[in-house]
């Protein structure tokens, strides 16, 4: 029984970094996509702004998930 608990904890610990990096990357990709492809079709040029906004949203989501996993493992 102790081995299963150990492997479950190991699995949770290994996903922390992956969740953080993927959240940041997805936020960055969404912001770049909006700035480079959607906004020029509408007629606006907002190049760095949506990239920064969604990058910060991705960072916040990554750290929120990090805190949620840390609280869950207590």
Jot down its keywords.
74 residues, 2 helices, mainly alpha, single chain
Biggest sheet statistics: none
Instruction: Give the amount of beta strand, in percent.
Output: under 5%
Distance between the termini: 19 Å
Give the total of beta strands. 0
Which structural category fits the helices and strands? mainly alpha
In terms of quaternary structure, what is this?
single chain
The percentage helix is over 70%
What form results from the Cα inertia axes?
elongated
Using only C-alpha atoms, the radius of gyration works out to 17 Å
Question: Helix and strand succession?
Answer: HH
Give the helix tally. 2
Average pLDDT metric: 89
Give start-end ranges of low-pLDDT stretches: none
């Amino acid at each position: 029984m102790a081995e299963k608990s150990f492997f479950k904890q190991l699995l949770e610990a290994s996903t922390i970094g992956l969740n953080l990096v993927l959240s940041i990357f997805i936020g960055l990709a969404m912001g770049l996509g909006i700035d480079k492809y959607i906004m020029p079709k509408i007629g606006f040029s907002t190049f760095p702004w949506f990239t920064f906004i969604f990058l910060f949203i991705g960072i916040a989501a990554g750290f929120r998930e990090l805190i949620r996993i840390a609280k869950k493992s207590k």
